[in-house]
Amino acid sequence: MDQAVVLLLLTFLVSLSALMIFVWSMSRGFFGSGETGAGTIFAPGERGHVEDPALDALGRRRLQDAMGAAPAAADAEELATRLDADRSSATPALVCLTLAMVWLVWGSVFGLLASLKLHLPDWLVSQAWLTFGRIRPAHLNIVGYGWCSFAGVGIALWLIPRLLKTRLVGARYALWGAGLWHAGVTLGVAALLAGWSDGMEWLEFPWPVDILLFLGGGLMGVPLALTLLQRKVHHLYVSVWYLAAGLLWFPVLFAVANIPGLHVGVQQATMNWWYGHNALGLWFTPLGLAAAYYFIPKVVGKPIHSYNLSLIGFWGLAFFYSQVGGHHLIGGPVPSWFVTMSIVQSMMMVIPVLAVAVNQHMTVWGNFQALRHSPTLRFIVLGTMLYTLASVQGSLESLRSVNAVTHFTHYTVAHAHIGLYGFFSFVMFGAIYFVMPRITGWEWPFPRLIELHFWLVTIGFGIYAVWLSIGGWLQGVAMLDAARPFMDSVAVTLPYLKARSLGGGLMTLGHLVFAGHFAAMVLRFGPRRIGAAALADLRWTGKLQGVKA
Question: Transmembrane stretches, by residue range (predicted)?
């Protein structure tokens, strides 16, 4: 047997064995009480108290009524510590989230232009930088490295001191890192529009730009390590595991993928999809799930359903995800054993995905009425549902029989958007609505705009994903029919591409509403309702009236 086959097979067997040993160790109580671990995000006496700063005072009362009566008091000292932790992370988190909003708007504009060009190919072609071949990679990199990365890091910087119950250490490193990362994305997009590209999906930025991103990302991760050393908690909540893993995995992935001249030919294609898939699964997924595991329990006021199940989800992701990208190369000039092993690990991903799905669903079970009141919960629960859909769909797409139809079609594009937009972006939307009142000490000035944003992006994305999936499947069926000319597979997609642009237009409008509302909050426009959201949790005790937000 080939040595490479043996090595990869052993890697898989070790991963599977390690997961079984981990499950056994939890059953023996080696990781402590799951109940204790799940409750570390709550202060003593805080369980039963809802928390959603995106709501005004009336909305919070309605949410509390929906969840039942709250206990009389929470621990005043720990709540004061939490408020101090929020202050320490406010500046770097605000900088990252502001830059995320800027890139969200630009990414939406470029994405809509690229979508329109698919059914209006002669529109805006007089300038080279406006052609589809430059607009589309600019959109992808803006969304991935601009909006998603800044949003994820901003939320991570805000969560870390809360989860570790201490002040954020090294905020200045995060600020310098954000500046370098922002400069890298700006220069990278300019290079792509000028025609300077490395030519691989997710790796289009020229290598000099990659240096800025690597240095910036490393600096933004420094506060995690420094704050961990100063933590005031003995047990690390599962969200810390996800955040630490994502902030450690991504620099390794990015560095290996971008070393100039290291990968050539077939090896380069293999590395491309190793990186492309892992950027989603080992960078954005950990950041998104870390946020979901914190905000869902905090909003409903009760711990996660099964803490041990959350740990299985984390380690399942760590053990099985790293090699799933190979199924994008089915039919390519790569060894069949490599593709087969990728398919096997793709199917094994069902384990952590179901662990997350069951956990999140059961946490909200019996309290779905809270979705009517909490905008944070509405966005994040929908996002986690789409995480389950995207992940199971991805496992099925790895099967050769399904891949034969979906490969090289718009179906794959729809699938990618369900993961990166439907899951990650929706979770980030909800998280930003939660944290911004804590960061600014100012409530969202126009609550109805939150609802408008939700319905615009939900309906728009529903149109986008459903119709593009149908059109992509029909495209694949047409390409497999040897009796039909290739142009039939192009013509059959046109109505679905127009639906994609309609959905994308609604999503872009929703993003403009979101960005405008964000700007109004930061600039303190709108009704003056300062302090109510920022101090609502402290008023439970009646002992901290003198604390200022």
Answer: 6-24, 92-114, 142-161, 173-196, 211-229, 241-262, 274-295, 307-324, 336-358, 379-396, 416-436, 448-470, 502-523
